[in-house]
Design brief:
Layout (H helix, E strand, L loop, with lengths): L1 H12 L18 E2 L2 H8 L6 H4 L18 E6 L2 E7 L5 E3 L5 H33 L6 H14 L8 E2 L2 E2 L5
Parallel strand pairs: 1-2
Antiparallel strand pairs: 2-3, 3-4, 5-6
Length: 171
């Protein structure tokens, strides 16, 4: 009796290994599509109610009702393979791909931040120097300087500081 029970446990434990690929194709037929158009029709079904699904155009293999948010699918079209995920809005989002545009945008943002930091450092240095020189720096002048910096949006500190003199307007 105990031997039968042990054998049964071994069989049940081995059930997670019951799928075996026999041919060079996916086990899940909804994981690969021949066109982006067809894949997007499939993805449109993800997260929709049965009533909403009835209104949608079906993909060529009528797999739509099996689509789910977060699913990874592959499109093999024009001798090119792209991998997509189904987004929360049922659209397709490219996984990986060309990130050079993202890197360029990040580099521009970093450069702008460095310029802003440099401008801020220059303004702080001029204020420090003015205080050390016992120049008259009033609270009103500092507030006016802050407002000019904010209004100029780093369009040029030359309007605010010229030859080390802070232009704070007249009071």
């Amino acid at each position: 009796m105990a031997s039968f029970k042990n054998e049964l446990i071994k069989v049940i434990a081995g059930l997670n290994n019951t799928f075996k690929r026999l041919f060079p194709q996916p086990i899940d037929q909804s994981s690969i599509f021949a066109s982006y158009y067809d894949a997007s029709k499939y993805a449109a079904f993800a997260g929709k109610t049965e009533a909403d699904q009835k209104l949608l155009e079906k993909d060529s293999r009528n797999l739509g009702p099996t689509a789910y948010i977060g699913q990874i699918i592959t499109v093999y079209e024009n001798d090119k393979v792209d991998v997509y995920k189904i987004n929360a809005d049922s659209s397709l989002g490219l996984v990986g791909g060309n990130t050079s545009q993202d890197i360029s945008s990040l580099n521009t943002s970093v450069s702008n931040l460095q310029t802003s930091a440099s401008t801020l450092n220059n303004n702080v240095e001029v204020l420090r120097q003015a205080i050390e020189d016992n120049s008259k720096v009033t609270a009103y002048a500092l507030i006016e300087l802050k407002n000019k910096i904010n209004n100029n949006n780093n369009s040029g500190e030359d309007d605010i500081i010229q030859d080390g003199i802070i232009d704070c307007g007249t009071f």
